[in-house]
Amino acid sequence: MIVIVDERELVTEGYCSMFDREGVATTGFKSNEFGEWVSSAPDEDLSSVRAFLIGDCSGEAVSPRTIRDRTKAPVIALSEHTTLENTLRLFESGVDDVIKKPVHIREILARIAAIQRRGAEQKPVAAGRLHVFMDGRDPEVDGQPLPLPRRERRILEFLASNSGRRVTKTQVFNAIYGLFDEEVEENVVESHISKLRKKLRERLGFDPIDSKRFLGYQLVV
């Protein structure tokens, strides 16, 4: 899930719509709402955030360093002002990247992936013969790609990014569909994971996803 912060509701709705067409879940906030949320949100909600996009915000309501105190997700500024002084100011505030608008959604996703690749936690995760990447590529089994639908691939990436930890169905849902999507039932996660496990069993000969009722899912690495 990607969180977008901007004072203009039309802007957040526009970005959410464009990301949705790319199969990426989003949530939009105004700056005052975001400040309250990021300081009080449960860790399991923040763990589902792939990146924060900060647009036109009032005052000091949105602090990249405050965000980083709660999560390691990339913080990217969307800037309408192309001056060097403004770009330097944004970097000094603690953002990981500055993107000048207008910009295509796919470029934003590519920049997020590039930032994540630079982090140690974004190295490919190996589960035996299965290798899971964090940059949008399909996973590989024995060096050969295993094509997956976007949501199944994102679920596998989320499980891999939390290797060694068990994640709940709610956490998986939040990562794939967003925190406030009321149009989709949370139980859809079970259907996606069932299809994913079947494909993994067919290629690997075993199921690398361990599930326990009421406790959630874990990728066995």
Features:
alpha/beta; Rossmann fold; Arc Repressor Mutant, subunit A; 5-stranded parallel β-sheet; CheY-like_superfamily; OmpR/PhoB-type_DNA-bd; transcription regulation; Response regulator transcription factor; transcription cis-regulatory region binding
Description:
The protein has 221 residues and is of the alpha/beta class. It folds into 2 domains: 117 residues, Response regulator (Rossmann fold, 3-Layer(aba) Sandwich), CATH 3.40.50.2300; 97 residues, Orthogonal Bundle (Arc Repressor Mutant, subunit A), CATH 1.10.10.10. Helices cover 43% and strands 18% of the residues. The strands form 3 sheets. The chain has a 5-stranded parallel β-sheet, with helices on both faces. A 4-stranded antiparallel β-sheet has the order 6-7-8-9. Helix 7 packs across helix 9. The longest helix has 17 residues. The chain is globular, with a radius of gyration of 18 Å. The two termini are 24 Å apart.
